[in-house]
Specification:
The chain has 137 residues and is α+β, with helices and mostly antiparallel strands. It has one domain: RutC-like (60s Ribosomal Protein L30, Chain: A). The protein is 21% helix and 31% strand. The chain has 2 helices and 6 strands, in the order E-E-E-H-E-H-E-E. The strands form 2 sheets. It has a 4-stranded mixed beta sheet with strand order 3-6-4-5. It has a two-stranded antiparallel ribbon with strand order 1-2. Strand 4, helix 2 and strand 5 form a beta-alpha-beta unit. The longest helix has 18 residues. The model has no long low-confidence stretch (mean pLDDT 92).
Length: 137
């Protein structure tokens, strides 16, 4: 298999991104699609009920476990889709980004989409994040 070449950039003709890249270009390698991760531990128990930051931390721990199980690292993440329930104050988004930046390359962050939803599949979940990773060979 070929080595994955990853390039993250944002054209000057698009609005300036705030904490993400507009484009993640991948050539070669292996693409891995990670299912949406929520704030549940390995036993399925909700972690951080009512605590947004604790839930975001657990979600990123779960993403790390998933990408490593596929043979990659968090540095291989090229795209994040973030689903945030409407009850979470939008002022909490910078907290989400701060936690995210401890797990991904904050200098060249993955392409990202943030979607506000009415609710997630289970009561108590405040955030769900799915990811795409580009692995070497």
């Amino acid at each position: 298999m070929s080595k994955a070449s990853k390039e993250f950039f944002s054209p000057a003709s698009l609005p300036p991104p705030r904490g993400y890249s507009h484009i993640a270009k991948v050539q070669g390698g292996t693409t891995v699609y990670l299912a949406g991760q929520v704030s549940s531990d390995a036993s399925g128990k909700l972690v951080g009920e009512g605590d947004f930051e604790a839930q975001v931390e657990q979600v990123f721990r779960n993403l790390k476990i998933a990408v490593e199980a596929a043979g990659g690292t968090m540095a291989d993440i090229v795209k994040l889709n973030i689903y945030l329930v409407a009850e979470v104050d939008q002022a909490s988004v910078p907290k989400l980004r701060a936690i995210r930046d401890r797990y991904v390359n904050a200098e060249k962050p993955p392409a990202s989409t943030l979607v506000v939803v009415t609710r997630l599949a289970q009561p108590g979940w405040l955030v769900e994040i799915e990811a795409i990773a580009a692995l070497e060979g």
